[in-house]
Here is the input.
Amino acid sequence: MSVARPHPDPAGHSIEPLRRLVADDLTAVDRVIVGLLDNPVAMIPKIAGHIVSSGGKRIRPTLTLLVARMFGYHGTRHINLAACIEFIHTATLLHDDVVDGSTLRRGVATANALWGNKPPVLVGDFLLSRAFRLMVRDGSLEVLGILTEASAVIAEGEIRQLAIANDLSVSPDDCMDVLQAKTARLFATASEIGAVVAGEEESTRQAMRDYGLSLGTAFQLVDDVLDYSALQNDLGKTVGDDFREGKITMPVLLAFERGTPEERRFWERTFARVEQRDGDLEHAMTLLARHNTLQATLEEAQRHAMMARDALADLAGNAYRDALLDLVGFCIDRKF
Amino acid sequence: MSVARPHPDPAGHSIEPLRRLVADDLTAVDRVIVGLLDNPVAMIPKIAGHIVSSGGKRIRPTLTLLVARMFGYHGTRHINLAACIEFIHTATLLHDDVVDGSTLRRGVATANALWGNKPPVLVGDFLLSRAFRLMVRDGSLEVLGILTEASAVIAEGEIRQLAIANDLSVSPDDCMDVLQAKTARLFATASEIGAVVAGEEESTRQAMRDYGLSLGTAFQLVDDVLDYSALQNDLGKTVGDDFREGKITMPVLLAFERGTPEERRFWERTFARVEQRDGDLEHAMTLLARHNTLQATLEEAQRHAMMARDALADLAGNAYRDALLDLVGFCIDRKF
Here is the structure.
């Protein structure tokens, strides 16, 4: 099943040109990450290295680097803090995959699929503890406050996600709240940290938080759509992971809301009771198409993409600002 | 099987008198803990509350409170920081029980036994994130450095523990290193933090770190002995948890070292390959008795207890110092 995009970009978007703009910084971030994983306990570089190097796009650290450079920052704090943000993200992924029982991520076997649940739980804790150590070494209570707050919001978002995992009575607003806590908040923080190290004032920091939050929201909504898109399969990612886990995302919630009594019974069986049979995923995708909910979710993503672009409106133009605008396009237009 | 203790204390030791000495502070710590668990997401107070309130002795926060008071501290920072330390400890327990597949802790069903692995993984993350938030609010980079360092050492210790879980070739020194990283380090930190908030100089802080490290080491060695003690059963804790998990502790390591070739084959089957049959636990306990390794482990615990007492030798005497000495006796003499 292919999904029509509301505003297709004929040129397509790639993240590579933006990454080239901060290529040296990204290399430095990678060096910090690799250095922190270097540990005589073989399990640590093995498992952490597996996820860190398994095709992640490093969007969050790239965000911190681009924002810091956009504001003319020339120090080195953004390097360590970008690594910190990637570590928080990676720790979350490891625990997420354990909790969701996921077997593939970006087309590669997950750590829990390869080594069981125990190592990823502990290596996630290890990464998080290293992230906090990096933060403390940065030496700013203000930055520590921002990052620990983000970490607390993410942790709470993860729990709320689990709490509503099979609950079709959740409202779209609650669903959006969880999405923003789990995903968008770290984008907002990654973006804000760039402005903070550059010494920008509060109104500018707020603009960067707004940009990151909207960008992250659009990113995740597109992710939720892609999970039901056949294209995924070509890229090695499994289609229907969210379906099999009974994870309620916007496209499903809208289809449930718009569904006939019979359709609702289907969603209740497959999501609330997670009783799934052969052909259910295909039927689910038919229902999503019938009610245009992938389309509606993409339109919602577009709305947040617009808000992200708007948040940059008052900033002076330069190559980095252009890159942040392109990043919005990438998050919306990506196929994986 | 009952274990003869090398220096039995006819009076016995109870932790209650020491707790009474800082009763108001402990009540304040509990209030902070309960306040932080108060969350509209029901799973959080349910699961965190289950472990926080399930009979823990609050030894670590008590340590911080006693040390701070011993040095005449009259502020309130020690309250929040003691809560912080208990949160780090509780988060570790939740993840530990998931990793070990434990079903009972202190005679009460573990969170993973009651609700599966998912909630405890995420609630552990939540508690840790709240601990870091508390630390940041305390506002001292020095304290943050000490606590994040401890958290990093614990996380690494957990992984090393898993890495050596079924490895009988581990040396007693390595086994001790892991024990100290996993358990004793947080005792050392809890103790040091009390001296730091009271503004004590480095040599005194070092003495308190030494005290805590030795105390925590003695505590855990006794714990490892108690896991093979029949007394446990009366208290609802299962005997032989470590055995069933193939978790290599000092009593087993010593029995392996001292064992005949046939006995070594038994340990290799039951620990290295974790192939266990009815009667194996009883046979293991016979072997521990034959080589006196529970006794030897208790003597090692006594040695660390002595070091803990020595670390307090140069400090001015007062009721709090006496309590810290009593705490050593309690950790050695406890039956549960």
